[in-house]
Amino acid sequence: MAGKSDRLTIFMYPWFAMGHITSYLLTANKFAERGHKIVIIIPPKAQSKLGALNLHPQLIQFRFISIPHVEGLPSHVETTNDVAIQGQDLLRHALDLTQPAVESMLVGLKPDFIFFDLMHWLSALGRRLQIKSIYYCTVSPVALGFMFAKGPSIENIIKGPPGFPRSVKLYKHAARDVQWMGTAKELGSGLTLKQRLMTSMCDSDAIGFKTCIEIEGVYCEFLEKKLDKPILVTGPILVQKTQANNLINVDDEKWDIWLNGFQSKTVIFCAFGSEAVLEQRQFEQLLLGIELTGLPFAIALRPPIGFETIEEAIPNGFKERTQERGVVDGGWVPQQLILKHPAVGCFVTHCGYGSSWEGLTSECQLVLLPHLADQYFNARLLSEDLRVGVEVEKGDEDGVFTKEGVHGAIMAAMADDSRIGKEIRANHEKLRELFNEEFEDSCFDNFIQKLRSL
């Protein structure tokens, strides 16, 4: 616990996507455990979802900021959950317009550090106010490193940047996502997403990642050399038992009761986060591939494109064939609690950075089905570099997967006689042994020491 004279005051302004905000709040809890004060900017409606995760309300303060009006952005939009991915550039532009309000807060608060995400202008503002800025990135060092690929061509993106560790190679359809980030200009700001990221990296005093050297050290070293500035790592920051208990409600207990009906390590859990929306054909192939395994399953997905509810999108006859052993849910589910249940043996994940870490620290076998952007890099890190998961095969050009591909990846990960399964289980177990409370605390204490050295 820091003494009063040693306490830091940290101002956090995450991108308004729930995964990003939650990541910042979990980090804030780590600071607050050590007696430091944190102010986090969030949209007003998010407080009801985040309150249970704030373990130190006496030290972690939510500050609300209104979304400025931007032509084309509906008035109800506060987070990326409220708008299609095509409209998120307008939300970024709207948050750029909060600069005067943020400056007023900073002048009054006089923090030691600013932690920011996609608000690339915060470093310049911090310098003017003599406040150190940390680009606290919620994607992996692997993904950020690919921003240095030479030129916008697909071939150069697939090759990766010069000097980049070669264990990560992209499909063509994934490389097109990276290409889009460097060429598509946002409505309103006129910036590309790559320009935001590069400005955030280059103008900040340091870059922080929610990872550890044991997992992504070579990629951190690459960025440190490329940018000639400190790369700081917090270690894994996950929902702790106290927080998980706070999140439990009556609706969540139904999952525990349902899972109790199955044998140990037999249930497939499939979840794609709060924002991934599949096309109908891919949604059907995913469900049918899981059905082919013959194993019990719990699937949590948003309704596919063009559908209001999950029920109307489920393939004909699927429910009748699987009702004794499976459930498909279109709402929010307590992912951390489900992954910890002894009946769950396989996690089919879209490889969001937070979900990747939750899978890595669980006892479940990992089946990787990235959907977009940085998820492809996370999948390749887990499957090719660390070799702790099996990636579902996709078409190189179109990114399409089949039910046979889903079935094959799950069985390769779970079957007792699978050579690949034995390898990934052994590798996964070795890494998981690292992640205890003592390791996490040591990583974060080192992170704070390096912050102070700035």
TrEMBL record:
It is an enzyme of class 2 (transferase). Transmembrane segments: none annotated. Pfam families: UDPGT. Signal peptide: none annotated. Its EC number is 2.4.1.-. One of its GO terms (molecular function) is UDP-glucosyltransferase activity. InterPro entries: UDP-glycosyltransf_plant, UDP_glucos_trans, UDP_glycos_trans_CS. CDD domains: GT1_Gtf-like. Keywords: Glycosyltransferase, Transferase. PROSITE patterns: UDPGT. SUPFAM superfamilies: UDP-Glycosyltransferase/glycogen phosphorylase. Belongs to the UDP-glycosyltransferase family. This is Glycosyltransferase.
